[in-house]
Amino acid sequence: MADRVLCQELATTGNHYRRPKTGVASANVVYANGGGSWRAAPRQAQRQPRQTVQQYANTPATGTAGRHVGRAPTAIVEEQPRESTGAEVMGLPATPRTTKQARNKSEEAINDLLTRIPDVGKLFDVHSRIGNGTFSTVLLGTLRRESHLPDSLRRKFAIKHHIPTSHPDRIMKELQCMTKMGGVENVVGIHCCLRCDASAAFVMPYMAHDRFHDFYTRMDVPEIRLYMRNLLVALRHVHKFDVIHRDVKPSNFLYNRRRREFLLVDFGLAHHVNLPAVRSSGAATSFAAANNNNNSKRPRERETMEAVQQSAPADAGLGGAVKRMRLHEESSKMPLKPVNDIAPSELQQQLVDGSNPVQPQQVQQQQQQQPQLAQMDQTPSTPSGSKYNTNRNASTAVANNGKCFCFANPSVCLNCLMKKEVHASRAGTPGYRPPEVLMKYPDQTTAVDVWAAGVIFLSIMSSVYPFFKAPNDFIALAEIVTIFGDQAIRKTALALDRMITLSQRSRPLNLRKLCLRFRHRSVFSDAKLLKSHESVDGKCEVCRNCDQYFFNCLCEDSEYLTESLDAYEFFPPSAYDLLQRLLEINPHNRITAEEALKHPFFTAAEEAEQTEQDQLANGTPRKMRRQRYQNHKTVAASPEQLKQQVALDLQQAAFNKL
Ligand SMILES: Nc1ncnc2c1ncn2[C@@H]1O[C@H](COP(=O)(O)OP(=O)(O)OP(=O)(O)O)[C@@H](O)[C@H]1O
Q1: Where is this region: Disordered (predicted)?
Q2: Rounded to whole angstroms, how far apart are CA atoms 248 and 237?
Q3: Whose CA is nearest to atom 19 of ligand 1?
Q4: Which pTM value belongs to this model?
Q5: Which of 266, 267, 301 to mutate for ligand 1's pocket (most ligand atoms within 8 Å of CB)?
Q6: What CATH number has the domain spanning 105-205?
Q7: ipTM value
């Protein structure tokens, strides 16, 4: 029998759903400049084989090395874009996209939900699977007690069925976020939560939405503005609670183009802004242990346990599990013996069996040693004057005030072994992690989400999705360095107390050039254009910094005469400025969601809109013309009225000028 932990009455008088229609009316559209990644994205192509037929042509990008251009998709033939409504099972005709395989998966998911949580079946008719994530399957449901109503009057719900291996704390935290913050400002709310043994399901309001893939290249500036504004509104709301969403990405920000509705979903990785209290190797140990329980289908990091430990305010309501973890953490928090006291044989023994004898006075010594160690991190120079100390002798290390001896050694030096482990969350989806996360900065803030919003904006502006696609955090950082230059990263690393070693220098690229160059890739990668710039011997110079042909150079301070981009301009200058601020490398200088909403990209448009509305209220130009014509006629009728009309016209002109 199901054990219901929280079930509010589903009597919310929400809007009755309407029969869904497709968002955009255009069938079989061929995009010459359709989306795609910098690199070939076989995963992306594989993920949606049933929905999109993609024709990739292996068009060599400009530049010899093609560091980040690689294989550019030249054409995407798509079926009519549609909202993922699950409408088929609600009496609507099945679309050709619904394959047998998809139906099977949908049925599997429904059966799984109904078997694991039988109460769901008593309350809901579950129709189809509408989303599939790392931690859950989301299904479409309608109330059984409304089954007698016509389709158009039955309310729809998104039932998020958590995978049974999801940690209870993670589920609890997600639930807390939704109950505390949800239901307003584009943030998803929750109706109820059902649990049976190890399985839990959230019942949320359902929102039919379009796939990002279908609209990100099609939006005009006002729509992009609307999209970004709504995303920032949701983030501003979440950030007011000092909560970092940590998984801001297009698939978690639902958008219904037709109804202009938005919804930020998935608070599975959300946590409070770091309190620097819990950063110990013990925490890392228990986190690792928790991590082992979770098997990920997709490369999204699972740091729930760590997040729980770092978010003290959230802990209050989390119950025994967290307390248990804290105990575990305390017991493993014991500091290591100071290096002076460790005989080499003893140390070896410790490393082998993991034993860690601790005495009270050693704790004190350890605490005294911490500032020294922190300092050491910042001073890589050695007595010999070389940048790195390659001395292998541990006793010399001690004599050298605990400097690092790891470089060029096959093992971690004693001094580093003694250091407290830096424990920084890296939860989130690859491609949306900001530099501070990639550099393992422990005191992360809501700026993490703002960076992710910037990446989404960059995808929209450049028509490249996903924009960053690195297999690991190092390459992800290298991608950021490629665009923003090494100086910005070095400075930020210094500001964040992190040390970063880069093998080469790189100058920053210009975001406007980057966006327009990618947006119009077919134009700038055209063979004819290349031919027109080739020298007589058929060669064309390539910029060493950005790896692009000189006429397409993307560098901020380019030394080349490049092709003019003005004819291809699509955005106002304020858009690039906002993009730059959202993607500020230093999290301390990054714009907040609240500030971003006051950026001229939004406010200037609002002012223009206001003026337009005022004009409408006072008469549109067309109306005015008609009025003038009528006036003219009247004037002809009476010379007396002529004066009046002229005065009126002058008044109107003066008013318009204002
Ligand atoms: N309220 C909702 N209405 C409509 N669809 C929804 C709703 N909530 C979630 N979905 C769909 O389900 C998908 C997965 O949901 P969610 O992100 O919450 O799960 P997840 O397991 O955490 O996924 P991921 O690992 O991709 O973040 C979403 O991308 C969306 O398409």
Answers
A1: 59-104, 286-320, 352-393, 608-631
A2: 14
A3: 133
A4: 0.66
A5: 266
A6: 3.30.200.20
A7: 0.97
